[in-house]
Amino acid sequence: MGTQIASQLTAQRQDIIDALVLDSPMVSFTEIAVASMPKEQAPMIRSFLKSPYSAKTAVEMIKEIPVLVMHSKTDKAVPYIQGQEVFESVGSPLKYFWTYTGEHLDAPSLHPDELIGKMRLLFSQKHR
Q1: Beta bridge partners of 22
Q2: For residue 80, with 0-12 CB atoms within 10 Å meaning exposed, 13-18 middle and 19 or more buried, which class applies?
């Protein structure tokens, strides 16, 4: 499931979701478009391209469940800074950021043991 939809569903259903893991999240589809265009075109892109979902906005509403945001600095698909922006917007005090090595979505294949350890920590957090 993409990070945009996962963030939105988690924000809406915190009563039944125990944790959220976001791998290489983008702020929004709009901001991905802006990141791939010349800077002087950013205002025009933002005025015409409106994302139906924004992970950055959705995670602000997550208040009580643990959240793990992970991203690679060498991700060529989604800029690392967008993962940091999403993380900084998480409303829950139980939030963790993990910088891993590899490309886009490589954490499970390149770092499975470390990922499992981080997920165990996430699910062990008392939040209800």
Answers
A1: 69
A2: middle
Mean of pLDDT values over 100-127: 93
Check if the beta carbon of residue 74 is closer than 8 Å to that of residue 101: yes
Is there a contact between 99 and 73 (Cβ–Cβ < 8 Å)? yes
DSSP states along 52-114: S-BHHHHHHT--SS-EEEEEETT-SSS-HHHHHHHHHH---SSEEEEEESSSTT-HHHH-HHH
Nearest to 4 by CA among 20, 19, 24, 26: 26
- List the chain domain ranges: 3-124
* pLDDT tens profile 25-65: 999 988 888 988 898 998 888 888 888 889 999 999 999 89
- Domain 3-124 sits in CATH at 3.40.50.1820
Q: Residue 49 CB: number of other CB atoms within 10 A?
A: 14
Question: Angle at the Cα of 50 (from 104 to 60), degrees rounded to 5?
Answer: 65
